Every structure is written in structure tokens, then in C-alpha cells.
Amino acid sequence: MPRACCGGKCTCFIVAMTVLYCVFWVGDLVFGLALKATELSDLEIRVIGSLSLFFSVGLIVLYFVALCKDRDGALASQRD
User: Fold this and answer.
1) Contact between 76 and 5 (Cβ < 8 Å)
2) What sections of the protein cross the membrane (predicted)?
3) Torsion angle defined by CA atoms of residues 19, 10, 66 and 73, in that order, rounded to the nearest 10 degrees
């Protein structure tokens, strides 16, 4: 049975990232709907949208890095 890398911490990290990812997207949806209801200028909406996109991409990258680290750790433990 393969171990998770980092002494079992990567699996917990992946679960935490999955939960964070889901919470972030639900929050993003609610925030987007609330943003549509406000009277902001186009520039303000673009700045907020750009920041949201930046953090979304960063979260996705962290998620896949954690998945790859977990897979590499499992492969390394199978070779031992």
C-alpha cells in the first residue's frame, strides 16, 4: 500500500485544497451576483474580476502541484 508523501501530510493538503477550492468557487459565484447588484464603474469591476481570476488560477496551480507531489510520493514509495 503506497504511503502519501510528506509523512501523510500531502493527502490532508489535497483534501484541504479541494474544500478550499469548492468554498472559493461558491464564494466567487455569490460575490459575482452581489457585484452585479451594485453600482460600480467598469474599471472597478475589471479590477475586482482580475484579482478574482488571479487567485483562482493560483488556487488551481496549488491544487495540481499538490496532486503531482502526492502521486510522485506514492510512486517513490512503491519503488522502495
Assistant:
1) yes
2) 12-35, 47-68
3) -150
Instruction: Tell me, yes or no, whether 50 lies in a domain.
Output: yes
Instruction: List, for residues 39-62, the tens digit of each pLDDT value.
Output: 778 887 788 778 878 887 887 787
Instruction: Quote the CA–CA distance of 69 and 20 in Å, as a whole number.
Output: 18
Domain that holds residue 39: 6-79
Q: How many domains does the chain have?
A: 1
Name the more confident of 70 and 17: 17
- pLDDT value of position 8: 56
Residue 1 lies in a domain: no
Q: How confident is the model at residue 1 (pLDDT cuts 50, 70, 90)?
A: very low
Please give the grid coordinates belonging to residue 79: 519503488
**Residue 41 belongs to some domain of the structure:** yes
Alpha-carbon torsion, ordered 68, 70, 75, 79, to 10 deg: 140
